Amino acid sequence: MIYLDHAATTPIHPEVNAAYMRAMDTVFGNPSSIHSFGRNSRKLLDDSRKVIAEALHAEPTEIIFTSGGTEADNVALFGTANSLIEKGNHIITTAIEHHAVLNSCKELEKNGFQVTYLPVDENGKVHVAQVADALTEKTILVSIMYGNNEIGTIQPIKEIGELLKGHQAVFHTDAVQAFGVVELDVNELNVDLLSASAHKLNGPKGVGLLYQRKGLQTNPLLFGGEQERKRRAGTENVPAIAGFAEAVKIAQKEMAKNRIKYASFEKILMETFEQNEVAFEVNAGGAERLPHVINISFPGTDIESLLVNMDMAGIAVSSGSACTAGSLEPSHVLSAICGSETSKLRNSVRFSFGLGLDEEIIRQAAEKTSEIVKRLVK
């Protein structure tokens, strides 16, 4: 089996697994307890928080641990909107956000908030001028993802952050797909809130984070104890957080090397398709993209047959977001780029790279994909 769906989730790194199991075996105290068992857990929690904060160029106190990216997005949107309701009710986002943001916005609309969904260009990119035009005196939140999970397009986050300086709007970016793959500096990006998730960078599932800039207030979603500086109630998942920190250490160390490796993988895919005379088009091919994600349209094929045949051939890929792929609904991202009638909605495949792959594996996958596509083209 060849796993090319790392944008959906990643295998846990052996060193991460070791750190996770070591914490499970040796550190079981509640980090809020004052006895030695609690203090041991608290130290591991604090050390892990410091590692992750440093990767974002943030302060440890600005990191809130969550159950994953979806919760982090929800805290960012609902927490900010509800805390700033007296200043306005307008929110700006894009048409190609992850559903954790889009569906949160839809829920906020039911509660009286007004949401502007910015369209994107042919490469899935939003332009700073669009944000500037959409801003009003009632805008309290702008949420724009760093890199798209389906097509990989990177948005001009730093420039949008510069635009928002001096405006009351809080700036959030969903960096779930980007964290651990590209360098992120919350200060250079000028963001107030940033979401990330461990399972996208070879860490355990069920743990994520929300970076929240010092001094910013968000209303909590959970009510209970005073964990996470009263911002997220509930006993922290210390072993998973320790695994998260280990995954971040490894990702930071391997990032530059992986970028080069993923570029070679993309080149092998396209060269193999060309050599086999397979018709294809890279979606958002003209954009700056995350290095591990490439979305390719194969004209004349049907996505269901394509995915089934590739799975039978031992190749795991996706037609889009893992949160909706099970239903094979048309991609809202490609719809926003190409229109709801485009054939790309029924013939596009996302290949995404990560741990355990090498050039020979990619070459095998490309050859098998070529055979399948040529067989299925109508």
From TrEMBL:
Domain of life assignment: Bacteria
Q: What class of enzyme is it?
A: transferase
Catalytic reaction(s) noted? (sulfur carrier)-H + L-cysteine = (sulfur carrier)-SH + L-alanine
Give residue ranges for domain Aminotransferase class V: 2-360
Keywords, A to Z, come to: Iron, Iron-sulfur, Metal-binding, Pyridoxal phosphate, Transferase
Q: Which cofactor does it need?
A: pyridoxal 5'-phosphate
User: Which InterPro entries does the entry link to?
Assistant: Aminotrans_V_dom, Aminotrans_V_PyrdxlP_BS, Cysteine_dSase, PyrdxlP-dep_Trfase, PyrdxlP-dep_Trfase_major, PyrdxlP-dep_Trfase_small
Q: Where are the transmembrane segments?
A: none
Q: Does the keyword Iron apply?
A: yes
SUPFAM superfamilies annotated for this entry? PLP-dependent transferases (SSF53383)
Q: What Enzyme Commission number(s) does the record list for this chain?
A: 2.8.1.7
Entry annotated with the keyword Calcium: no
Similarity comment text for this entry = Belongs to the class-V pyridoxal-phosphate-dependent aminotransferase family. NifS/IscS subfamily.
Q: What is this protein called?
A: cysteine desulfurase
